[in-house]
Amino acid sequence: MFRHALLFALLAFAPTFAHAWGPSGHRIVAALAERQLDPAAKAEVRRLLAPSHERSLTDIASWADDLRHDPAQAALGRATAPLHFVNFSSSACQYDPPRDCPDGRCVVAAIDRYAKILGDRSRPDAERAEALRFLVHFVGDVHQPLHAGYRDDRGGNRYQVQWNGRGTNLHAIWDTPVLASRRLGWKRHAALLARTPLPRATGTPLQWAEESCRATRDDGIYPRAHTVDAAYLARMRPLAERRVRLAGARLAALLNRELSHSRR
Questions:
Q1: Residue 262: what pLDDT?
Q2: Domain range spanning residue 199?
């Protein structure tokens, strides 16, 4: 009962623009990635995070979302808000930078940009550490289908649904309840997902975004009756878990590339 009450509270007070996956989902992505880091990359992560007394990717997984709640960094949170998602123009789900990412202000361009900063050892450590924080979060974001959709509903925020007799929106459902329906904490959930061979890391950020877009089109994410129930959560959970597993593998590959062979 407590778990259901907690989920109700999360949905009742969900902001207009919900966070992708929620803190637990982002920590699962980070934990899966950390398992796949090579020793050099893991050492560089710890070195970059040491000044802020953080040690792991899970410690920073939700930092990019938390900015908006920190008065000292609210301006950075507002400035980077468009970098959490990308909007496609049609169900073709084909990425066109000038149209879908003007001035590089979308999650696809952000991942590419921050990866270059992270891998450049001529830059100050503080700048590279900030790039790491954004990357860990944005790779998770781009794998959340509703952060790369094509419908005119702000990533499901304007798609109203009923869940257990209460009104909410589809993005809020994907923020927490879909993964939380496993009824595990993030550590146990990540350990469970890591028991089977982790997926091979393939593709580029634009291809990851196109995958997410196609998922919103093809995989039944939008309930036609605008009603979400336990059956919907159970049906969607394998898709969500597949996306976080892919995000973890791809984040690890990206960090291994940029941190093990950093540019000087």
A1: 56
A2: 2-260
